[in-house]
Amino acid sequence: MTTKMREIRLKSRPVGLPVAENFELAEVALPAPAQGEVLVRNLWMSVDPYMRGRMYDRPSYAPPFQLGEPLQGGAIGRVEQSNHPDFATGDLVESMNGWREGFVSIGGALQKLPNENVPPQAYLGVLGMPGLTAYSGLARIGEPKPGDTVFVSGAAGAVGAAVCQIARLRGCRVVASAGSDAKLSWLRSVGVDAGVNYKTCGNLLEAVRAAAPNGIDIYFDNVGGDHLEVALELARPFARFIECGMISAYNDTELKPGPRNIIYVVGKSLKMQGFIVTNYWDMRDQFRVEMTQWIKDGKMKWEETVENGIENAPKAFLGLFSGVNSGKMLVKLG
Amino acid sequence: MTTKMREIRLKSRPVGLPVAENFELAEVALPAPAQGEVLVRNLWMSVDPYMRGRMYDRPSYAPPFQLGEPLQGGAIGRVEQSNHPDFATGDLVESMNGWREGFVSIGGALQKLPNENVPPQAYLGVLGMPGLTAYSGLARIGEPKPGDTVFVSGAAGAVGAAVCQIARLRGCRVVASAGSDAKLSWLRSVGVDAGVNYKTCGNLLEAVRAAAPNGIDIYFDNVGGDHLEVALELARPFARFIECGMISAYNDTELKPGPRNIIYVVGKSLKMQGFIVTNYWDMRDQFRVEMTQWIKDGKMKWEETVENGIENAPKAFLGLFSGVNSGKMLVKLG
Fold first, then answer.
1. Which pLDDT band, with edges at 50, 70 and 90, does A250 fall under?
2. Rounded CA gap, B195 and A285, in Å?
3. How far apart are CA B90 and CA B95, in angstroms?
4. Do the domain assignments include residue A212?
5. Is there a contact between A108 and A61 (Cβ–Cβ < 8 Å)?
6. Contact yes or no for A260 and B258 at CB 8 A
């Protein structure tokens, strides 16, 4: 007895900006789960900017995706058949087996969702990896103090939007950069103090300076490039730069010049620190408790941009690089 | 009763590399010290790369030098007349009143040298600001562990040479970059494991890679520019970059592109942190005790490059930017 499921495979490695032709849809026949295994049908899958890095054939913190193999990523599914004592039909589970409609897995690779009154896909966003990225990076590298000015680039993305709201909850003033007025309007509705539309503002430095006239104490970087140079220019002494991502460079086919004012790191005693979310895995339990409470108290909001069907997963992923998403970009599978 | 002393004043602000014409020698008549004051004749003065920054007319961590006024910097002098109860004729004192043969000061601005059996000018070098810079930056930002590979640029300078030896004393493997084979030979004589002559090595990346085949855990940056880019390339995950200085950029008249591989800060979870020595002033007592002991035990060596006479102070300063000095650059005044 097999079950047919579709999946997205990496057909060719992108050169520069990924295109639809780098992906292919395939159908596989899943066997019935053996002893200790579980058959899961995915309801939601995540697409995230970091996945671009795994499409290069080079060593990094995660191994490269393999050509002809299904991609991987966060997913929320429902147990359809279980031969594992810890899982029952109907259980909602989290896995790294995204980019496919379903899968058979050993139970140990799955995690049951907590029994909280939140939509399951939140565990791919504000309560999942992007949320923990925001929460832990801000805490461990940013060390926010009440009154600090926090500048966030890519502020309307899944990570950025969480950073903005957590920083507000920590008593900070938040200046957000995003690529549309609609995104900025939403960010203001959740408490962001000032916003810059980097696509229409003209001189980015002067626009951010106007929004942060006393300078920046913390920069949460999702973008790199010009935004990083502007943040260096406006940084106050002892500012902390949380280097979470540099989406502006993920598709570069050649090396671009770095920030021309990197010397400010010395004179202003800046700290610029990169991280990946697994560095701060020890904060996960604390994060889930505090974030869940914020959600229940109405203190944490999020947006979702949803594509439907596994066949549209590449489109969802490609949309990250043109910023079509507001908030968490998801693919609904079930 | 006045005493004639000569001093060096800033005549014009350098544009690019400073030249002799930016400085002028002047003679002043010092009054007799009033109550609470001390007349000091300087024996030694320091020239340091950071002084270049104070020649720009812009706000920074130290106020800019003023045109027509004497420059400032570390100096060691001998008390010639005292109207302060804490100082007696003959006392050796440290001050920030360098660039002059002598001065009258309130006693509170002076610090008596400890009574240790070390040459007094060491308090401008290995036991002074450069030594504390090396000691505190390595400890607080570098967090060295035995077995770490430490890459040091500007390794033959006053700060760099101390960093190399402290890192060895902390159990690290040390790779040094300097601008002459003679400097590297001296560095090897004090325990440095591998050296790169950046002026003759050809491809700096490949030369440093050969000297640090397992990558870099700590980079102590005195230079910036190409050295920083190379260190980013060779950094191991979680490497620490101690951003002490970027002498390669101090005389730039226009902004130069930054490191093209700055994105590694994210993927490798690097920490890049700038500092000035006063950030870690709390380590000063501990530093003096430990460094003095190392000197007495023969575990810490240093070189000095000495110019004689206040009239040669500008020449000594200019020499820092072509690297004519091995070790601490000093001007002998008394």
1. confident
2. 47
3. 15
4. yes
5. no
6. yes
Tell me: do A43 and A154 sit in the same domain. no
Q: Judge contact between A248 and A231, C-beta under 8 A.
A: no
Q: What is the pTM of this model?
A: 0.94
Residues A140 and A248 in one domain: yes
CB pair distance less than 8 Å for A265 and B244:
no
Are B202 and B221 within one domain?
A: yes
Q: Is B62 on the interface with A (CB under 8 A)?
A: no
- Which of B261, B263, B271, B277 to substitute to test the interface with A, most A CBs within 10 Å? B263
CB–CB of A261 and B255 under 8 A? yes
Whichever domain contains A317, its CATH number is 3.90.180.10
Q: Where are the beta strands (DSSP E) in chain B?
A: 3-10, 23-30, 37-46, 75-82, 92-95, 102-106, 111-112, 149-152, 173-178, 194-197, 216-221, 235-243, 271-274, 304-308, 328-332
pLDDT tens digits for B191-224?
A: 999 999 999 999 999 999 999 999 999 999 999 9
pLDDT tens digits for A223-241? Answer: 999 999 999 999 999 999 9
Q: Any chain B CB within 8 A of the CB of A1?
A: no
CA distance A300 to B309: 67
Contact B266 A243 (CB under 8 A): yes
